[in-house]
Amino acid sequence: xxxxxxxxxxxxxxxxxxxxxxxxxxxxxxxxxxxxxxxxxxxxxxxxxxxxxxxxxxxxxxxxxxxxxxxxxxxxxxxxxxxxxxxxxxxxxxxxxxxxxxxxxxxxxxxxxxxxxxxxxxxxxxxxxxxxxxxxxxxxxxxxxxxxxxxxxxxxxxxxxxxxxxxxxxxxxxxxxxxxxxxxxxxxxxxxxxxxxxxxxxxxxxxxxxxxxxxxxxxxxxxxxxxxxxxxxxxxxxxxxxxxxxxxxxxxxxxxxxxxxxxxxxxxxxxxxxxxxxxxxxxxxxxxxxxxxxxxxxxxxxxxxxxxxxxxxxxxxxxxxxxxxxxxxxxxxxxxxxxxxxxxxxxxxxxxxxxxxxxxxxxxxxxxxxxxxxxxxxxxxxxxxxxxxxxxxxxxxxxxxxxxxxxxxxxxxxxxxxxxxxxxxxxxxxxxxxxxxxxxxxxxxxxxxxxxxxxxxxxxxxxxxxxxxxxxxxxxxxxxxxxxxxxxxxxxxxxxxxxxxxxxxxxxxxxxxx
Amino acid sequence: xxxxxxxxxxxxxxxxxxxxxxxxxxxxxxxxxxxxxxxxxxxxxxxxxxxxxxxxxxxxxxxxxxxxxxxxxxxxxxxxxxxxxxxxxxxxxxxxxxxxxxxxxxxxxxxxxxxxxxxxxxxxxxxxxxxxxxxxxxxxxxxxxxxxxxxxxxxxxxxxxxxxxxxxxxxxxxxxxxxxxxxxxxxxxxxxxxxxxxxxxxxxxxxxxxxxxxxxxxxxxxxxxxxxxxxxxxxxxxxxxxxxxxxxxxxxxxxxxxxxxxxxxxxxxxxxxxxxxxxxxxxxxxxxxxxxxxxxxxxxxxxxxxxxxxxxxxxxxx
Amino acid sequence: xxxxxxxxxxxxxxxxxxxxxxxxxxxxxxxxxxxxxxxxxxxxxxxxxxxxxxxxxxxxxxxxxxxxxxxxxxxxxxxxxxxxxxxxxxxxxxxxxxxxxxxxxxxxxxxxxxxxxxxxxxxxxxxxxxxxxxxxxxxxxxxxxxxxxxxxxxxxxxxxxxxxxxxxxxxxxxxxxxxxxxxxxxxxxxxxxxxxxxxxxxxxxxxxxxxxxxxxxxxxxxxxxxxxxxxxxxxxxxxxxxxxxxxxxxxxxxxxxxxxxxxxxxxxxxxxxxxxxxxxxxxxxxxxxxxxxxxxxxxxxxxxxxxxxxxxxxxxxxxxxxxx
Lengths: 514, 318, 324
Hints:
Helix content of chain C: 55-70%
CATH class of chain C: Mainly Alpha
Oligomer: heterotrimer
Helix content of chain B: over 70%
CATH topology of chain B: ABC transporter involved in vitamin B12 uptake, BtuC
Largest sheet of chain C: 2 strands, antiparallel
Shape of chain C: globular
Order of helices and strands of chain B: HHHHHHEEHHHHHHH
Number of helices of chain B: 13
CATH architecture of chain C: Orthogonal Bundle
Number of domains of chain B: 1
């Protein structure tokens, strides 16, 4: 607690390259930012932490010129700046790597990096020069991506690098990383951190936003914590312990995040796969029992998402024996899976989970309606407020306005709506993919608790995740995948090092060891 | 309850516009100030309203159906050729019409849902083909009238009905059609899921909804609505290859006026009904003020754009 | 996601258009030989075939630009009629008025394109609806005022459709110029690169400092101008414009269909004019083949619908995503 004595709302060190001072912003009379300030020095990584709705992205949108602040000033390199369009912020040397990648999949890498700033003479693009410049920019980041490659063919991690090269191409002196590791696995995140370290060494000021505490502590020089639109504190790396930061963010320590593990021995077999294979997977053998949470870890491209999609029938197994609750289940569709009691929480909420313009009610009831007869009344029982009260109490969410479009909710609450949708259908097997991606700590804890409650009540959970903290904290068993195979099964509480060793070395090494 | 009120508020402008237009029509012409006059307005508006409702299913699920106009033509031509003026064949002709409609709907649906062809291209293609079939079948220039008992649905008016005096059969057809479609859209899981499918088909699929089958059904519903509209229109007018021309755009215009957001995920039957009524009332009013007939199309274009711009504005608030 | 490998760079980009052209040419030649109409394979026969491409080809180039930028233009058919009618009305048989007539048609094209573009880019009206609505307005106005707009083009203007330069029809040269110009802009200039950017992802383009609205409006103006040029060509071909010349030609559906068949995405951001022109060639051959086989015109219409849908489906059927 003594370190809290040093809390300063903002510091204006003379060498700060960027200072945001006393920033306030209201939307429709609701104050979302209240006198927030922080600064970032050249050659520094400054992390912004806070739950969803704490004001991080609003603050960064003001910095990027998406909209102006109501009050306060932005000082860049000693000059007060005011941005009214993103292009102005860009021109001033502020680059943003957005959470959602914004590259053009059908254009080449070079075309993406120089979009809007193509080197040209008399309007005609100098393609040779563009290619050379792109190659140089990429090699500066330690990458050997071919500038003429089609961007959509690259892996997510490679695209991330292209995105950084694009931001740097405007001679960015301030770089904002908004949840850059959300789509990355540990190895790729490690590569990204090396790139960030190199950028820091060249004197770029880096603002880093992430929900993943571990990486914040790994790379940040200073941490500023926001809560409810206010700056709580700016801590140095030495002061910022995980517990200190999380307590500032939510007011509870990290150990409370995960519920205790299963108390009862696992029950009957829910899912059994023997030699399951398709275009992405091979030799999948897996048994999952009632009451278990099985974590599936693996790098990007290891086949862990493909496994989820295969079991759910989205891209089904083409060979092998799949038994679900003592019935065969090969080559089926998501609809078939849902009817047989399988639930699926997709990793991409917005594009695969929700009808954003539909109401909370319609989103929460979509599975029940899909399972009912098409011409049955949608209203029978479903409109009763009691059902929603019970459902939403279960997911720790206030059912304030079930008729409001779900697009207005925060990420955490949107995820809870999807969880509620499946709870309402009472599934036997629940496949969850990246269940807490991009949601705040409070909602994370709630979802971990819900998954455990569900397992305790006799359900089986298959949890695919790139977040090793949650794999270790939540799973009863851990399967590690590489190269489309399950390479090893580890007991609960396995170390991150053990998981990574198997994930990186892949099936060949695992077989050689066996 | 609040939901009903909220949806009422959402489409309120259309109803308001319709009431204003209706008042203007009544003020211009004494003919429309009687119940019988209003009913005859409804009778004439029936095809557009039915089309608009059918089209709304497709629009709400995220598609377009441009084939409805030429399907109307095909239905009228088919009725004329099957009956050959012989009233005894009417029931066969009716059955055949709905069979043709269902087939066209299934073809559209399969091309869009299975072939993944964007519906605007798919239905423009069927528009061409269906019209071509109508021309081939009729030899290019069909004429004359349908038998009287087939024209009954569009034309016949019961007299000496208590309270209102005269009551057109078409209005009964209209009410039944609306009732069926409103039930499908608002009273069933099918309808609620269509909205979700239109908003995010992928999410609906992963929640277990039968996306392809329902998408296909929307085209069948739209086609069956077109058949109904065609039978009414065949009653109003003679047989020609132009009976259905332009009706697909009228149907889409009406649905857009009624607040069905294009590319899916929003809309209601109430809106579709009043969109159709508004469009027809507008045409009637333009007739009354002596507006040149071909200019109706231009006005329709302007209204269409205005309605879409308005709903784009409202939609952006979310 | 494995995703179909898309040919990139160099000649690979032209693989699909080439394949289309070769297939269509083979069918054409086989039909000509099979029906003993060898004259269809002579220089003049082939030129006749190519000339069929002109009206659709020019407007399809414009349609390519709007589709690439992520919009669509359903008003081109009616605009073609307007352009043809206005041009013949202004020229009214008078050689001196040719320049004025051309200017008037182009000016109307620019105006209509600007209206389309502003509706789509500024007022955020769905492009389908906006251009459909504008098309209806054009159709209504034209049908109403046609009688007062009667006229015909002077004989000297008909050189455009019937004249030849070094044995090559002038009209085909016109098409080549339009295609080359659009192709150059798309493949070589910064404006072209940015057009792809806007069509690929508006948000990305905006963040890159591109004035996206200008590109959308610009593409619409370009499309309308090509429609106006097609209208001028048809007036020259027919001697006078009529209010139904565009609609009867089905230029709205056909222009979209050939662009899609040529490999341009309906959602924008990928494609180009080479594919479009290959698509136009396919359509011209279909018509010619039907002619040679003396297929009933109504049956021809049915088959055409089937071919359009089938051709597009051959691209789309493997996509996993849902389409609307």
